[in-house]
Amino acid sequence: MKFCVDTDNKNSWYIGTNNFDAEMANKMETLMFQGNGYFGIRATSEERQLNERRNMFVSGTFDEFPSEVTELPNLPDLLNMEFKIDGETLSLAKGQIKGYHKYLNLKNGELVRKFSWLINGKRVDFKYSRFISMSDKHLLVSKVEIASDQDNLNIQVRSGIDGQQSNSETQHLMEGDKRLYEDKYLQLMEETQQSHIKFVFNARHNVYIDEVLLSEKPFINMGRRQIFANYDIHLNQGQHFSMTKYASVYTSIDRDVDQKTMAEKSVSRLKQNCAFNYDEQLRKSTKVWEKDIWQKNTVKISAKDIRPQVAINFARYQLAANTPRDTRMNIGAKGITGEGYKGHTFWDTEVFMLPYYIFTMPNVAHDLLRYRYHGLAGAHKKAQFNNYRGAQFPWEAAWPDDGESAPLWGSADIVTGEPMKIWSGFIEQHVTSDVVIAIMDYINATNDQNFAQKMGYEMILDAAIFWSSRLEYNRNQDRYEINDVIGPDEYKEHVDNNAYTNYTARWCLQKAIKVYNLIKTDYPNLYEKLDTKLDLTKNYADWLVKVNKIYLPQPNADGVIPENDQYLDKKIIDVSRYQVNNQLSSIFKDYNLSQINEMQITKQADVLLLIYLFGDLFSDEVKQSNWDYYEPKTTHDSSLSLSTHSILASDLNLDDSAYKFYERACETDLGIHAGKAAQGLHMAACGGVWNMTVEGFGGVRIENGKLKIEPHLPLAWDGLEYQITWHGSALKVKINNDKLAVEVIGKGINFISFGEEYQIPANSEIEITLPVIAEV
């Protein structure tokens, strides 16, 4: 496992670098991202650098530029601190840099950068520190400290709010008022052009010489979309300069402020925060990290190599920093770490990130699913546009009411030179099943009947109405098919009967039939309400006619399930040279998508994803046959692929393969290649690291509504500890090479392990000797 960041063998919460590498700067900006779910900032430096991506985003603030799809607008820069030392502008491209060290504390989100700048015979030492608060979601606190052995050193500082930012030159914001309160508090107001979301940005600076607060007022200058405070300081030998910058952002869609009084109230709140110094504010934020995040999802890996523990800490940190705590919002495919995918939500959340939250913080999982409930109107809109009924969830989702938010056109075709149409928003329809899979996993793991009755059952029934309307009857075969789709393997467009899509569509109908009978018998008031809303009586009859006639591709004589009707007839080529872990889809240097569509090449787990999610439907022999067939044909060009393969390899006792895929998955963002991380993190890969660790090696799975724990500890590890939640009880699991110990805190639970069912009474512990299983 090779990382592009340095690690510390004594501190698994540390990632850092001792080198300023301009070619890797964009990736480092992404990896050391800071956020609290409400807003986030890339780890750009306070002073400007060439080719940087100076991004700050607030979750859910989507805006649409004419002729483009909606996206999160890049917001004014609150980080900026520009220094002149004796007239020389600080730049890492000038002079000499000594002792450069930049690191992120994953445990509390503090970013620190230190270096000495040698210019014109002078040495000036800089230390920058900053964090985004977890205790006040609107607050950013940053600090700079400067020392030098020079006498009468002149320091000029320019810092404030710079609204001259864009999304790759697309401007979303209209300038509003600029204000100065009490000669100290800077304020800039802006508004999005199409969605008309109002923003208020505030900043204040406290400047100290040897810890004595300067009383002099700064010089304020205002420009177009800018307001800055300027200081002119003279530092004598042995003196120490520091400046703490308090900044905040508020929006008109916030639920904790009144937009009519937002400008004044936000300044008042910043005043309160300025009463606490940098260290005090950091301690307040750190306490929230510990209480609300780390105490709920312990994962400890016992191994000689620290990097697996660093990887799981990094993944959990990024999930916490990028997950909104507002049910009108969801996790973007790249979170709020960059402009990639425009902040849109995909199936990534339900299949790859929800397991982490379902098992560790079910309250967050509840809110992420509630986002889909808020999105039913948009799902109905999409279904109606496509002449279907029910809820067809969008492939790309932004604000929940918007419906489909996928772009229509992508990059140019290397053969034709013309833009390639993006078909996913039209025919990649399995996302509707993915939402139902997540709903059922949540209900099974939590037994949250309040959610089920208020939201979950309705979404399941509405999704089934869509699938029933989507089915196409084949008279010759007397069966229902689903033609012209894209499955999880996005290298196969316009295919018929994609196995994953067909199996999951039938499963959705089966769940809807069970829900119908349950609510009709046990919840008559709910049944009456949903019958009026969804015409359940008519749709139930339709489901019964169709459910057992949905065509499911069956294993052939070799045990291989056809990915779709056309796949097994296509040309086979050797894809090994394209299975390079750099996230660059190098196959497109040789072929266009139309050519790839005619070859047995798979982008990411498709049939194997079906087997992973619905393992109880297939025999071990069929699982192995499909692994042997499809994995060599898979390029793993998607960051979603590696974790699925690792977990399935664990299930198949392919221990060596499981760990190799695990290492590659951990390198998706942390690895040495530049890849696509400059555009933002791969949030599904972060979820995948937890999935591989706890579901794969830790053996946790939901099967037929029951909890299963069947560990497959890697040879490289001596032990694994983790904590999950099941039916409201906390389970502390400890695994070594031959023992499984499960402690329950709360009411008793049942679980299955290697064919045996175990009962653990309330607040007690059980220890099991693990069977010896030979690697295949």
Automatic annotation (TrEMBL):
Organism domain of life: Bacteria
Domain annotation Glycoside hydrolase family 65 central catalytic: ranges: 315-691
Keyword Transcription: no
Keyword Hydrolase belongs to the record: yes
Active-site residue list: E490
Domain Glycoside hydrolase family 65 N-terminal, chain residue ranges per copy: 17-252
InterPro entries: 6-hairpin_glycosidase_sf (IPR008928), 6hp_glycosidase-like_sf (IPR012341), Gal_mutarotase_sf_dom (IPR011013), GH65_N (IPR037018), Glyco_hydro_65_C (IPR005194), Glyco_hydro_65_M (IPR005195), Glyco_hydro_65_N (IPR005196), Malt_Pase/Glycosyl_Hdrlase (IPR017045)
Span of domain Glycoside hydrolase family 65 C-terminal: 701-759
Residues that hold substrate according to the record: W347, D348, K603, Q604
Any GO molecular function: carbohydrate binding
GO BP of this protein: carbohydrate metabolic process
SUPFAM superfamilies from the UniProt entry: Galactose mutarotase-like, Six-hairpin glycosidases
Alphabetical keyword list: Glycosyltransferase, Hydrolase, Transferase
Family statement drawn from the similarity comment of this UniProt entry: Belongs to the glycosyl hydrolase 65 family.
The protein, known as: Glycoside hydrolase family 65 protein
Organism annotation: Companilactobacillus halodurans
